[in-house]
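We emphasize that the prediction below concerns an isolated chain of 141 residues; any contacts that depend on oligomerization or on bound cofactors are therefore not represented. The input was used exactly as deposited, without trimming of termini.
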Amino acid sequence: MEADENVLGLLNGVHLVLAGMKERQCGTIINVSSVAGRKTFPNHAAYCGTQFAVDVISEHLREELADTGVGVITLAPRAVETELLSHTTSQDVIDAYQDWKGAIGGAIRPEDVSASALFAYQQPQNVCIREIVIAPTRQEP
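Result of the prediction step, given as a token string:
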């Protein structure tokens, strides 16, 4: 399931927009990855693998599209405050996540992630911020 959402979702999204961008010779693709695509975490092999795939696909697209005017940005946040826990009824899972989040120094706000994406997107078309790795200042690696 993670591969469907994280990898196939990315590929399908790129497929939908790429032809028009290449035809116009401009555009920006922003792929959302995770720090988990650069660093492994215990018990998260599948998730880390899909995020690594997002990073590699993004880098390949960036290289392949370099002469077309289409930029590719990889946005890789660390822990982000999301509604993730609203989808579980296991108090053990909720407690473990809250403990982990406290141990690493907290999570970043979704608004900060979107502001980073907007900043990268608003650069002149001849500038591509290739990667943004974002985490709270106090968050451990």
